[in-house]
Design goal:
The protein is mostly helical. It contains nine helices and no strands. It has helices spanning 7-27, 35-42, 56-81, 87-105, 108-121, 124-130, 134-144, 153-166, 176-191. Helix 3 (56-81) runs antiparallel to helix 4 and helix 4 packs antiparallel against helix 9. Residues 126-132 have low confidence and may be disordered.
Length: 193
Amino acid sequence: MPQAFTPEQSEHIRQLLFESACRHAATCGFRKTSLEALTADAGISKSSFYKFYESKELLFGEVGLHMESAIIRRMEEVLKDTQGQDNRVRAATAVNAAFDMLNQWGIVRFLSEDFPLLKSLLSRDEAREHFLSMASSILQTLKREKIRFNVSDETIEGVINILYLSTLHIHEVEGFPVALRELVLGACERLVA
């Protein structure tokens, strides 16, 4: 007979699954994380997993969305805290705050490799409804704060994506964090109107 969970147990198990997926996203990623590993962390059977999430893809999609949302909230805080400063400095400070969070969490590879795969595995409507691209999210956050650019949105998104993907090599390049900060500042000085 299937195990019944109380509402409190269900909420706790759902949180354990989510936390496990966050840890696995940062260490081995979506593809290398087994359903068995997730359910073991939550103390439930593999068959019970589906009482909480329809699929592993949706669980990891929720993790990606949570991470993107947290990064955007941090950018909004930085932009609010820097009101009155030059928009080039504000933009650079906010973008650097986003990259700092990515690097602190250790989830750059997940967001750049696994998250797009997850979006492609979901239906077009699910992807459109639930997920945003990181570059587009960063651009829209800057634009909401009235930061204007002297090039097209596509160019700005391309620059953000190049900088974002470069963070995959943070451990391979000596002085990478300082160099990235300088690149972001230089891009903002050149591209912010």
